[in-house]
Amino acid sequence: MKTITFDQKKTSSIALEFDELITDNIYAWTEADFAEYKVPVGNSRFPITDYFDITVEGEAESPAEVKMILNGDCGRVKYIGCKMSAGEVVVNGNADLHVGAEMSGGVVTVFGDVEAHAGREMSGGKLEIMGNTKEYCGASYIGEWRGMTGGEIIVHGNAGKQCGECLTGGKIRVKGDCDILAGIHMTKGTIEIDGNVNRWPGGQMKNGNIIIHGKVGRLLEGFVEQGIVENPVADGIEYPGKYIEYKGDIALKGKGTLLIDAEKNRDRLSTWIEYDDEYNAVRTYQKQ
Amino acid sequence: MEYILKNGIVYDPANEVNGEKMDVCFKDGKIVESVSGDAKVLDVTDKIVMPAGVDPHAHVAGPKLVVGRLYRPEDERRGVAQKTKVTRPEAGFSIPSCPTTGYRYSRMGYGTVCEAAMPPLEAKHTHEEINTIPNIDINPLPLFGNNWFVMEYARENRIDDLAAFIAAFLRISKGYGVKIVNPCGSEAWGWGMNVHGYDDKAPYFDVTSREVVRALAKANEKLGLPHSIHIHPNDLGHPGNVPTTIATLDSIKDIAKSTNKAASVRDQTVHCTHLQFHSYTGNSWKDAASGAEEVADFVNKNKYITCDVGQVTFDETTTMTADAPMEYDLFKISGLKWANKDIECETAAGIIPCIYSPKAPVSTLQWAIGLELFLHIDNPWQVCLTTDHPNAGPFIRYPKIISWLMSADKRMSMIDNGEVHKWASKRTGLGSIDREYDFYDIATISRAAPAKIHGFQDRGALTPGYNADIAVYDINPNDFDASKNPEAVEAAFSNAYYTIKDGQVVVKEGDIVATKQSHTIWTNVIGYEEEEKQIIDSIMPFFTQYYSVKWENYQVHDHYVPNPVRVDVEAK
Question: Which residue of B has its CA nearest to A253?
């Protein structure tokens, strides 16, 4: 087992790009190799040792035997764990864009907040974020119709807009709140959200499951209420309690399942349109 | 500067050189018989030497490409490469950036590419893109098949006026020849319709596809243009389109080829492009099957026809064509995103992503039909290597297609091992064909034939006086069985040992070592000036009333074509 520790010496106003410093590439590197390496910073490269003290302990014969530890505020370090296939990365601080994007294996853990694009198009492995993350968590890159296809993302804080866009497999668990359009265009996989969801979860979803334990804002009209279900099972996992089940998005002939907590969304059962002040305000304005 | 390529194994079909060990000399950008003792020696001992490749049909520049790049950012992420001291950064797979297009053709040993669909209204933009594609010369073909003026001349059989119109618009758009796409169909698309069959009429024009195609063919031969009409027939991609394809080609039979000097290079009076998409039998995809044998048989019997194939390559690509209604049909099948672009009074285009999967029955059928056409058409001078880039696949797959053509074992193993869907064996005859191309055939379909078909008199051969556009591949054909080593064939043709463009080495051992500004090849008709003036005067009231641009802004001025190769045609 090999442990590579990056202790931050100074931060950069321009983001450092760590897509070359993944376990797949550096499992055999020594401290001397790091001393020679220049990291991309904007349109230039600078010695990595300008920014980090790097210590290497142990030996590794494969990426799976490597643990990378980044100590310090990596809020301007992009692509941590991007495209890695094995091994472990721990960030003791914040991280910038594209953490764990396109990773196919291994574990990335961030003990802080993460910027947008975390775990985009990942196909395997586990990404755990102890803080919040922003837009496009586990989503597809722009233009693609396949987002995350496998693996697991756990966000202990809140997630931003379009979390799980085009989800095609795997599971995303958000323990906090989620912004609009969670699971938009998803075709497979599961999104579980413990907190509240702003608006339009599952827009244009074709299949897959979204489970929301908190309060849900406005739903799209393409979701058809199926009634109350108790202890529903989705993807082989039972969710205790009562849930309102919806199927949709029928705008795309979708067969996705949306389960929302019945107790916290009781108002939705009587008249689903009245709860949403903003929607009513728009309707009232249009009528005028 | 003088060079000598020493001891190569030369394949030059235009000069009937078939694998002879010889030297090739060039000086100041031109092939020469011999050079002095001071010439720089490039040792290519036991390596294949061919004229640089000529792509007779691809979509590499123009408004469709821009729309495709804009709405498919996911494609730009594929094929990213960092800049080098010589090259700019590369991006894109099926619709690469302009510089990337040039680099990738160069790496394969190509020197000339035909941009096969240039709307005259968007010609300025097309030329701007051409100017940013390095290392390859490009001859753009303006679209005439759905032009409102053309349809009127065709309806009234005014061939002289049509010839003058073509002459004028080739000069105005700096175009090379006459391209026809789904004649009358793209105009019908303006009304949400299409034409089905060769004798359907364009709405409100009272003219049929047959009349438009025949009129354009007659006008083309009247002018004696270097290239024949270049046609994408009606009913592309529809099961049961073989009768339409054969009717289209048959309708040109009685039109005599021009005796003009510029037209003397070619033998054909019609070039049918991406023939694979036009060779389906059946009534729907449920019972669709290969019509390749019937179509190939027709081509074999009629020497006035040439074609390129549009071979499917099993990739995720982007389809883009001026056959807008067909793209809409494809969109309805695939459900993927769709873009449409109308070009006022001239044409319309559609663009959608397309996934050709070897596990999908239709994709496999198309793949097998393309190969069947290559293998059933007896004369390699009548068929050219294309993927209709990017419609059936990106051009970087040409080496893979070459490997399929040279190895029956490879084709059979793909069918037998289940690498492709069973439709390949059940609905086509590919599995029963054991013909294999040799290097001479490959040089013919990728160099000599396309150059001859386009009427080039300065490329496509290693003739003294021709441009020194040369490709060298690291294979010793005397010590190599292409049939047993398809992967090696693909690797060698993907990365030329040398690519020489206008006498300059631009690729060495697969790496770009230099870039050159591309040339734009266009046709200048001489002798029709008075008729052109009259025809422009006659269309001007309509143009002023209905076009949204001014005539002065419509024309492609000389500074849009800074490196022209002007082909003068004495039409009278």
Answer: B335
**B40 burial type by CB count under 10 A (0-12 exposed, 13-18 middle, 19+ buried):** exposed
CB A150 within 8 A of CB A124: yes
Compare CB distances from A141 to B71, B77, B336 and report the shortest one's residue. Answer: B77
> What's the DSSP call for residue B52?
P
Name the minimum distance, in Å, from the CA of B444 to any CA of chain A: 39
Separation in Å, CA of A237 to nearest CA in chain B: 32
Q: Do B336 and A145 touch (CB under 8 A)?
A: yes
Long-range contacts, stretch B337-344, CB < 8 angstroms, 24+ apart:
B337/B71, B339/B67, B339/B68, B339/B71, B341/B63, B341/B64, B341/B67, B342/B190, B343/B63, B343/B119, B343/B121, B343/B122, B344/B121, B344/B546, B344/B547, B344/B548
Q: Which residue has the tokens 């702003």?
A: A198
Q: What is the pLDDT along chain A (288 residues), one digit of tens a residue?
A: 999 999 999 999 999 999 999 999 999 999 999 999 999 999 899 999 999 999 999 999 999 999 999 999 999 999 999 999 999 999 999 999 999 999 999 999 999 999 999 999 999 999 999 999 999 999 999 989 899 999 999 999 999 999 999 999 999 999 999 999 999 999 999 999 999 998 999 999 999 999 999 999 999 999 999 888 999 999 999 999 999 999 999 998 999 999 999 989 988 765 444 445 544 554 455 555
Indicate the SS3 state at residue B296: helix
Interface probe with B: pick from A44, A140, A142, most Cβ of B within 10 Å: A142
**H or E element at residue B202:** strand B201-202
Specify the 3-state DSSP secondary structure of A268.
helix
Q: Pick the closest to residue B6 from B20, B19, B25 (CA basis).
A: B25
Q: Which residues contact B496 (CB under 8 A, 6 or more apart)?
A: B106, B107, B108, B109, B471, B472, B473, B507, B510
User: Is there a contact between B73 and A141 if contact means CB atoms under 8 Å apart?
Assistant: yes
